């Protein structure tokens, strides 16, 4: 019983909401969140890089080679997002798998406790009759 209570307060607090989703939905939702955060992160990184390389960027812009500059940034963005999404897929898939295994163990312990309670209830009325 104490093991179950500690599970519900600790690890179970994280695992139970995860199990409300199907695996595909949970992973897709996590990857969607990751897409938006990775886009924001790339924008911030790009802005910092532009501030650092301001002199070189003005030379590129004055040379009117904007299409090559834009394509290079787009390629870097795509690579950044694809790598980030791959990592996110692995993380969310592993979290779901781990939560599923943890909850299976929790439910097996719960069944054992329920059987023990039923056994006690059956033996208790016999003791009261004596």
Describe this structure in words.
This protein is rod-shaped. It is 92% helix and 0% strand. It has helices at residues 2-9, 11-18, 23-52, 54-62, 66-129. With 130 residues, it is mainly α. The mean pLDDT is 84. The chain has one domain (2-120). The protein contains 5 helices and no strands.
What is shown here, in short?
The protein has 130 residues and is mainly α.
SSE layout and pairings?
Blueprint: H1 2-9, H2 11-18, H3 23-52, H4 54-62, H5 66-129
Q: Rough shape? A: rod-shaped
- Helicity range of the residues? over 70%
Number of strands: 0
Mean pLDDT score: 84
How many helices?
A: 5
Radius of gyration: 27 Å
Distance between the ends: 30 Å
The residue ranges in which pLDDT falls below 50 over 5 or more consecutive positions are none
- Structural category is mainly alpha
Domain count, please report it.
Answer: 1
| Beta fraction | under 5%
Which keywords apply here?
rod-shaped, mainly alpha, 130 residues
């Amino acid at each position: 019983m104490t093991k179950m209570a500690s599970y519900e307060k600790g690890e179970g607090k994280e695992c139970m909401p995860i199990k409300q989703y199907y695996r595909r939905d949970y992973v897709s939702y996590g990857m969607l969140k990751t897409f938006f955060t990775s886009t924001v992160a790339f924008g911030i990184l790009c802005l910092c890089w532009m501030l650092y390389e301001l002199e070189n960027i003005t030379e590129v812009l004055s040379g009117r080679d904007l299409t090559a500059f834009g394509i290079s940034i787009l390629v870097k963005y795509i690579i950044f997002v694809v790598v980030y999404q791959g990592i996110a897929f692995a993380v969310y898939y592993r979290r779901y798998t781990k939560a599923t295994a943890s909850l299976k163990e929790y439910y097996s312990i719960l069944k054992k406790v329920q059987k023990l309670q039923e056994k006690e209830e059956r033996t208790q009325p016999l003791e009261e009759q004596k």
